[in-house]
């Protein structure tokens, strides 16, 4: 079993909720990698018998650092329409809410379609770039093969402030795993904190709220299989304890798979 | 009383929920303007006696077109931390959920701060631009003074597809009203649908999910008062029934007040 599938394994309980367990393979500095938490929160409606369609939008609010161990997810259908379905999820530990989420699912139909944003141009191929070093980094980073063309995690935190926090990175699960919605939901949170790239200074940070829009359907994700996708991330603003991040994830044939936004707490 | 304050007036009910009423002044083609709904959903925790801090993030999922008339909002604190508070809200009509939302509030502290994105450059001043015409447009558009430097609502839906959907617009409440969080939450949804700008073709559309990050605190909004703010909006992708929009709202002294993202259903 792939470690990501172990980390996102949910057991159905008689009351309709799910039981999951944090995975050492996706451990972060404190508690689990937020992307794995987001994936579990999406997994609950994905696995629910009432679910219709594919995910379009996912928002996860991280209310507390998860403790290592068991958690419960309760997923409720708020409304089912002709082509969309609205969900609310809560993840709790010891009876306290640790994360909440909402998701919208939809049955897509073929319509006029057009890209507007373009993927980063003139990017070196993934296999010509070095894999991002792992020494001294938390376990979850070992579960991704990341090859930065620009804006990688600084080698040294020398406090040399950069002009921007833009990252461009080829990334896939490690070991490779066929891409699906839950893996994409997790991968959208795999970009290193923008403030580390910008300031080259370590400070306590934590994602507060994460929203991902899925532009791809299941067939597009299946076609991407386990190959590297292209990620691009940047911040708009850092101000009094909170900065944002916007990221896009492109297939290796340059189709937008997901766009993802988050707001992150920081100190100092 | 300003029409926006009428539209976002909530009455506290004995069970802790709120009663609101759609306002003809903010009517859209079908039901109320989504921005007014988002503002009401933020207003509930803002007015709640348990609320601590100022809003950082707001996500609204529109589950159904609201009917004109009364609605209920139920707002729950999910978790209160040392400096953040997590909320979940549900708006219902006739016992059915019409919209759900989550919000994160925070007590901000002064930290290292820096902009990264820049506002649109070389923009003509608001008073040198024409106000966007209102004839034949829904009531809510009359409640904003919008002056487009680029990417306004097309004069003619001639189906001449444009290269992009970028808009740059000076916008304020009409009549002017001092900016606050709820007005900013509404204004973030005031950009016309990107697909109209891009395709110059009318089609049925509806915002499915809207997320706004507040970069400003109350003092910055107060300083902006009732003057035009600068909005910039664009889409990344239009695909099989859903397109996204990202927008930034800047003060007239070029500080980022909010960034806002949405995913929108469209037909054809």
Beta-strand content estimate of chain A? 35-45%
The description of the largest β-sheet of chain A is: 13 strands, antiparallel
Gross morphology of chain A: globular
Work out the helicity level of chain A: 10-25%
Number of strands of chain A: 14
The mean pLDDT of chain A is 97
Oligomeric state of the chains in view: homodimer
DSSP summary: helix tally of chain A: 5
Most extensive interface: A-B, 63 and 63 residues
Rg measurement of chain A, Å: 18 Å
Instruction: Indicate the low-confidence ranges of chain A by residue numbers.
Output: none
What is the rounded distance between the termini of chain A? 41 Å
Q: What's the helix-strand series of chain A?
A: HEEHEEEEEEEHHEHEEEE
Assign the structural class of chain A, choosing from mainly alpha, mainly beta, alpha/beta, alpha+beta, or little secondary structure. mainly beta
